[in-house]
Write a structure and sequence with these properties.
The complex is a heterodimer of chains A (198) and B (143). Chain A has 2 domains: 19-84, no CATH class; 91-197, OmpA-like domain (60s Ribosomal Protein L30, Chain: A, 2-Layer Sandwich). In chain A, 28% of the residues lie in helices and 24% in strands. Chain A contains 4 helices and 9 strands. Chain B has one domain (2-141). Helix content of chain B is 13%, strand content 52%. Chain B has 2 helices and 12 strands; from the N terminus they run H-E-E-E-E-E-E-E-E-E-H-E-E-E. Chain B has helices at 2-15, 112-116, and strands at residues 23-29, 32-36, 39-42, 48-49, 54-57, 62-67, 72-75, 80-89, 94-109, 121-124, 128-133, 136-141. The longest helix of chain B is centred in the N-terminal third of the chain and has 14 residues, at 2-15. The chains are: A alpha+beta (198), B mainly beta (143). Strand 2 of chain A pairs antiparallel with strand 11 of chain B.
């Protein structure tokens, strides 16, 4: 009798993939491809195992981590609900300015309207305004310049009605060139502000 | 490595106000709370999180949130999850991020911190410590 109860619960456990053990389900990335998750410790002991098989389930805390394919059954309802509950990916908008000013270029004006619409349709929204420079001048000066530019644009966005409390300004300096160049090259594609809506 | 971590911590400290915002609640349903210090508040959309905050849900509870490094969380029912450590340098896009899943379920899409250094983002369960290497995954810790 006891044996048959055990058997039944083991069967249920397998079918629902929701046992009394902790588990890790590794999924493909949203844009295709997949990453991995390392198991660094198990029950207080160091482990050296990497789970890198997408669509797999790995039981945690019991011996060597061994990923099992999710197979035909796929994800259970709770797992599907978790994934559909994720916030949408952040969306970025790039604004360009007339050189030496904070005036938007003609082409960048419609972007402002798209930005406004995106902010309006996200609950609990926050907005990151990130300044980028080209490679003219020192890296430290460009950090300061990009921060200042981001703050100016934050002010500009506030002046056209975007709630200031949603926004933060960040300067990335010359770390993230849109168009790779050598050092000390003036480049208008690299002098830009990216606005990320989360 | 230690020096690097101290540097990140020092920068985060120097540039952050007392209650540094690390994430915002995007949506919630059912019994969904944030615990901070000794207090509890409803996890309403727009609520800003600080390091150390705990996400707690009841049997119909759900919470979704996004972090300032673009990491995204979806918390399932009957969960208790702490953001034990979060330090992020926005200029360099590097940091340290430790989440503790005491019970329940959590879907994660990792962001910039997981990309910045190997195992800069970790997830702790009662039995295991995981190192996140840029990916989408679910951790489940039944009662």
């Amino acid at each position: 009798m006891i044996a048959s109860v055990r058997f039944a619960s083991a069967g249920l456990c397998f079918a629902l993939a929701a046992c009394s053990h902790s588990s890790l389900v590794l999924l493909p990335d949203e844009g295709g491809g997949h990453g991995s998750v390392a198991v660094l410790e198990s029950n207080g002991k160091p482990v050296d195992a990497v789970v890198s098989q997408p669509d797999s389930r790995t039981r945690l805390g019991s011996g060597t981590p061994t990923p099992q394919p999710l197979g035909k059954a796929g994800l259970n309802p709770n797992q599907l609900a978790l994934l559909s509950g994720l916030p949408p990916p952040p969306r970025s908008f790039t604004l360009y300015f007339v050189e030496g000013t904070t005036d938007l270029t003609e082409q960048s004006r419609p972007v402002l309207e798209h930005l406004r619409a995106e902010i309006a349709r996200r609950p609990g929204v926050d907005v990151e305004v990130t300044g980028h420079t080209d490679t003219t001048g020192s890296a430290a000066d460009n950090d300061a310049l990009s921060q200042r530019r981001a703050e100016q644009i934050l002010d500009l966005l506030a002046s056209v009605g975007i709630d200031r409390s949603l926004m933060t300004a960040v300067g990335r300096g010359e770390r993230e060139l849109r168009q790779p160049t050598l050092d000390n090259v003036s480049n208008e594609l690299n002098r830009r502000v990216e606005v990320t809506v989360r | 490595m230690l020096r690097q971590m101290l540097m990140i911590a020092a920068i985060a400290f120097a540039t952050s106000p007392a209650h540094a915002e690390i994430a915002r609640i995007k949506s919630s349903a059912g019994t969904a709370m944030v615990e901070r210090g000794g207090g509890r508040m409803p996890a309403t959309p727009g609520l800003r999180l600080s390091p150390g905050d705990k996400l707690v849900t009841g049997k119909n509870g759900r919470i979704s949130l996004s972090f300032i490094d673009n990491t995204r969380f979806s918390v399932g029912p009957n969960s208790r999850i702490a953001v034990s450590q979060f330090a992020y340098d926005r200029t360099r896009q590097r940091g340290q991020f430790v989440t503790q899943v005491d019970r329940g379920s959590l879907a994660i899409v990792s962001g910039q911190i997981a990309k910045s250094d190997r195992d800069a983002m970790k997830v702790r369960t009662p039995s295991s410590l995981l190192g996140v290497r840029g990916t989408r995954f679910i951790v489940e810790v039944p009662k």
